[in-house]
Amino acid sequence: MLLSLRNDHKEHLSLLFSHSPQVIVDFCKLAIDFLQNGPNFKLYGSASQKLEVQPEDVQNCVYGLVNLLLESCKHKLNDVDFRDSILTIGFSQEQQAILSKFYLSKRKDVTDILSKLSVDEPHYHDLNWRFEVQVASRSLLQQVTPLITMDLVLTEPTDGIETKSGTKHVLLQTDPCNLVHMTETLENALIESRSRHSRRIQRAFNN
Amino acid sequence: MNISEELKTRLKFISNCNITEDVYKKLLENTFATLAGKSETHSMSTLYNSKPDLLKQAHAILLQAGAEFARNNMNGDEVKAVLTEINFNQNRTKLFVDLYETNKDDVQVQLGNIGMHPPHIVDADWKIDYIVKASNLDQSEGPIFRISLVSSKYDECDNERKLERINFSCNSQELQDLVYKLKDAVRHCQRLTTE
Amino acid sequence: MEEVDNIIIDSLRNLSCNIDEDVQSLKQFTTEIVYSSMVFCLQAINPDIHFVHSLPQSMSLRLKNATTIAEHIKELGYRGDMGYQTILYCNEIEIRRVLMFLVERLPREVHKSTVSTELGYVPKLVKKIDESVRLNLEKPWVPSEFLKFGSRDCKKMVLKQDFGYGHNLQSEIIQIPDLQKQDCVESLKQYWVHYLPEVTKQCLKQNVVPSLLYRDSEFTDLAFSTKVENVETNSLVNNIEISNANLVKHNGTTVPELSIFEIEINKIRCAIEENKHKYEELQISYNNLDKQLAQITDERHKKEAALKESLTKIKTRSKTLAVLQNKENLIKLKNLVDNGNKRLVELANHWNDIQSPLLQEYQELQEQLKTRKSKIRDEEQKLQNLKDKKISLKKELSEKEKLEQQLATEYEKLNKNTNRSAYTRRILEIIANIKKQSEEIQKILIDTKIVQKDINSLNGQLDRSFTLSDELIFRDAKRDAMARSAYKLLATLHKDCGEVVQAVTTVGLVERESRNLQEQIDAELCKEVTSKLERLNNDIIEMKRENALLINKLTERTC
């Protein structure tokens, strides 16, 4: 699959076409710095002085590189596809080699972050349980009520790109009968996900 | 038997008070209907006659006695012993004990419902999702399970039972972990009964 | 085999299986008995299995039931050959094997009854927990909507499976008329009669019972609660003021470019603070002065009162002085005083005379009262003791009755198992028999060994004497014609004898073989193949007839 970029995106990247591999490497470093620490205008300013261009152009070029990385990860390009895409945009063979290296080194991190972004509801984290029997309460002095009290720990997504999600504790209880039912139901889900039908669907999506 | 002297003196009032057996019977039936969470069978105002204050007091005492006996999990014989001790006549004792024994379980259910509890899981639903395409990702690895635990909880504001869903998602390994932990709990319960 | 049969039949009778008194061994078992005894055994082992106790009439039904029974027996782990034919066309040995297997699997009831005799809070609780968890696990899941108030009635106990109705314990203040109280006002009574609502309507429906049982919401000292509140609010207000002040200070230091207004405001604030301070000081001094004033006025009042008193005293004194100045008056007064004194003494004497007996009487009566009271108290104590005793005895009685019942049921159960001693006796007998038999076998073995030895020694002797005579006659035969013929005869004699011996051994072999064959024939005869085949044939014909009937019916239906 080939990546098709918007025209302004291509324009922003075109700044790099005429430059030496060393410059490309520097720009890749700038992009990595952007991913880790956010924009750094001072660096862009000094770079623009060296290259004798407008600071905005440098800034746009860095953004363009990051966007290129994100788009490639989003579509899960393999290295051949990535190479072809880069070459079609207008980079030279030499430049492409550097960019491919850049892509391969950062691909996993970016994909991880992207997949986490898509989770938009509480996510299972942990479960603790204890078995207890209620033998008396203030209004019923003699009773036998077996209970399973559970602490369900969920991670909740917070807004923003930072992946520091908060954990939430949900305190629940149930009786043995419902516990068995619940366990069976959830186990069925697990078994169903391994059935031939589900596997076929998954395979169909992957191809 | 942990019946307080206060309640005994109150009950003595009923043993002495001047109401007809028929009114006593209806009053008792109302009392146990209330304690068992049912609606009253007789309208109270028809029972009043000329002594509303007396009946109001008797009703309150019977309610208190019935609740206290059930709270202590007393059986019919024990109740009978207490009532004869404070001079209830045979007919009234028998009526009380009979109604008490038939309604005891229901009354205890009501008493057992008093108290604080976390939401009680009564059911679980699930669905398996595959992400075909997302805004920021083309495809994902494996299925995503959307789990919904149905829990029931008493709503203190609306004064009724309400179902509350606890929704969360997990992937295959996490669900496996969850199921494993739950099975552990189930196994623990089963082992309890076999040993 | 008789012993085994007895054991089997005994245990079958214990299962209330109808076996006639004259049935003594499995040989007498008919298909009917075999079928019903297997059904009884299976039901005793697994109460969930349901079968008709007698063989049905229809052939196909018979076949069907027999196959399912056979499957159940196989499920229990029976290894041998098992099918409908074992039940319907039974042979003694197989039936014995199957029934032995089933009798071994019968549940023993002795264990359960021993556990239930434990009494005490903790063991009871543990038992109850055990029971409720088991019930909870055994009962199929039911949606919570079908539960009545979140609990499920399982005959033995009520299981709580949903706490959705579990509201908080909350008690409200409710009013109950109290006609026992002595001093109630008429208007209060009127209020009770006409206006006071029913207790059930005085608070929320779910709070009625807690409010009646507990008095959580009633405070005995109302002032106490309000005081606590005041202190709390005061401290809260103080805290807020302090934090406000902090905030102001904070603002002043951190933000250097504070506008003029703010500075002014601060100044004003400072002035206000100062004024406040001054005001407070003034207030304090005012309060002090006020107190002083109060003290002074107080003192004045006291002094005025004292003045008044002394004035009246002076007045009376001056009056008496005026009277006393006359001497006659003085004497009269003295006489009067003397007379009065005398009369007083007289009266006192008189009073003493009257008082002392009365006092004595009073004391006596008091003492009597005391003794009587103490007696009454003793009696009351005794009565109370008796009452307590009565209650405890009653309790004990009921417990004992329960125990008695339990023991009676246990005893009944045990009664059924009295054949244990019979078993052991039989087993001992069997063992003794076996011992005897083995001894006999041992004896016979020794006998045969001795015979074998004798035979061997005789054989040797024979051989030796033969070779000796052979040699002697052979030596003579060279010289004597008679001896030659004797030698020939000896040779033939030897040969013939050898043949005879061989013939005897072969006869023995054949006899053994024929005995084996006879046994096999007997075994085959036991199986009664011919009669069984006949029965099978009859059953097949019966079935065919049934099938034909059914087909006829079917065709009629379709027509």
Automatic annotation (TrEMBL), chain A:
**Residue span, COMM domain:** 123-197
What CDD domains does the database record attribute to this sequence?
Answer: Commd2 (cd04750)
| Matching InterPro entries | COMM, Commd2
Pfam families of this UniProt entry? Answer: COMM_domain, COMM_HN
Signal peptide limits: none
Listed name of the protein: COMM domain-containing protein
Source species of the chain: Aquatica leii
TrEMBL record, chain B:
List GO BP terms, alphabetically.
sodium ion transport
Q: Which domain of life is it from?
A: Eukaryota
Pfam families attached to this UniProt entry? COMM_domain, COMM_HN
Q: Where is the COMM domain?
A: 120-193
Q: Which family does it belong to?
A: Belongs to the COMM domain-containing protein 3 family.
What is the name attached to this protein's record? COMM domain-containing protein 3
Upper classification of the source organism reads:
Eukaryota, Metazoa, Ecdysozoa, Arthropoda, Hexapoda
UniProtKB/TrEMBL annotation, chain C:
Q: Would I find Heme among this entry's keywords?
A: no
Which organism's genome codes for this protein? Aquatica leii
Alphabetized UniProt keyword annotations: Coiled coil
The family classification in the record reads: Belongs to the CCDC22 family.
Residues in domain CCDC22 N-terminal? 1-107
Note the Pfam families from the entry. Answer: CCDC22_CC (PF05667), CCDC22_N (PF21674)
GO biological process entries:
positive regulation of ubiquitin-dependent protein catabolic process
List GO molecular-function terms, semicolon-separated: cullin family protein binding
Recorded superkingdom: Eukaryota
Q: Which residues form the CCDC22 coiled-coil domain?
A: 263-524
- Protein's name according to its UniProt entry: Coiled-coil domain-containing protein 22 homolog
Keyword Electron transport assigned:
no
Q: InterPro entries annotated for this entry?
A: CCDC22, CCDC22_CC, CCDC22_N
Coiled coil where? 272-306, 359-420, 526-553
